[in-house]
Amino acid sequence: MNIIKFLDEFTTDNLLEGKSSRRDIFGTLGSLSKKAALAAVPFGLATMPTKTYAQSMTADPVGALQLALTLEYLEDEFYDLALQSGVLPTGRPETVYMQISKHEQAHVDFLIAGLEGAGVTPVEKPTFDFTVNGMFDPFNDNGIGQDTAYAQLLALAQAFEDTGVRAYKGQAGNLLGSPFLTAALQIHSVEARHASEIRRLRGLKGWITNNERGIGMPEATQAVYEGEENVTQGGVDVTTLGSGSPFSMGASTEAYDEPLSGDDAVAIASLFIVD
Question: Which residue has the higher pLDDT, 3 or 266?
Answer without folding.
Answer: 266
